[in-house]
Design a protein that fits this description.
This protein has 228 residues and is mostly helical. The protein is built from 13 helices and no strands.
């Protein structure tokens, strides 16, 4: 993607010149409004965030369609469903037994804390909501931040493998950099604007999927060619 990929080793921290808002503006010029995360309700977005772990979004769409078809995209119905029934509906997303348990864990917390009221659950402050989500078995930092940002409209930056790979290949950070370190580096130079946070994460996903691929990167046509 950048000439630095071949000439400069990845550094252990992002340099002082790293400007996440500049990165946002470069990608906004290419993509415009991202329209991400797809979902009709906050609950659908949260369910999608769990289901997308280790799978392509097209598979998540199939699983969500099945949940809707069977009127199962509901906190109480997921909570009370037999694990094998729920697993059969989300089968297209892969790891369906594991993800069934994780969805039920999340619904259990929403039931316990807010009697199944999704709006009340997501109305908690960012720190409180993030802490509650991270305490749910099967929800890690990326999933928790995805739910906070896209389902609950909280300003927190989502870091994923695409983000680390892009930074690494541009000589900005190690690909295995600590999650919180990368998240805070982005937030240090981004305006506190929810749309910016949502769109930048989406842009990095687009670039990672289409250009900065794990194998066969398409550097010459990448919108980040020449960045920074």
């Amino acid at each position: 993607m950048s000439s630095r990929e071949k000439t400069s080793p990845a550094r252990s921290s992002v340099p002082d010149s790293f400007d996440a808002f500049l990165l946002f503006r470069v990608l906004r010029d290419r993509y415009g409004p991202s329209g991400w995360w797809p979902g009709e309700t906050p609950l659908e977005i949260a369910v999608g965030a769990v289901l997308t772990q280790n799978t392509a979004w097209t598979n998540v769409e199939k699983a969500i369609a099945l949940l809707k078809e069977h009127s199962m995209l509901d906190v109480r119905r997921i909570h009370s469903a037999r694990p094998e029934t729920l697993a059969s509906l989300i089968r297209p997303s892969g790891y369906y037994n594991l993800k069934s348990a994780r969805l039920k864990n999340l619904m259990q917390v929403i039931m316990e804390l807010c009697a199944g009221d999704v709006e009340a659950f997501f109305s908690r402050g960012l720190h409180d909501l993030r802490s509650v989500l991270l305490a749910v078995n099967g929800i890690g930092k990326e999933t928790a931040d995805s739910i906070c940002c896209y389902a609950a409209d909280k300003i927190t930056f989502v870091v994923d493998a695409y983000t680390r790979r892009i930074l690494s290949r541009h000589g900005m950070a190690e690909e295995q950099a600590d999650y919180e370190t990368v998240r805070q580096l982005f937030e240090a130079s981004l305006p506190r604007d929810l749309t910016v946070y949502k769109d930048l994460h989406a842009y990095l996903v687009f670039v990672g999927k289409d250009f900065c691929r794990k194998s066969g990167p398409r550097c010459e046509s990448c919108p980040l060619k020449g960045w920074p």
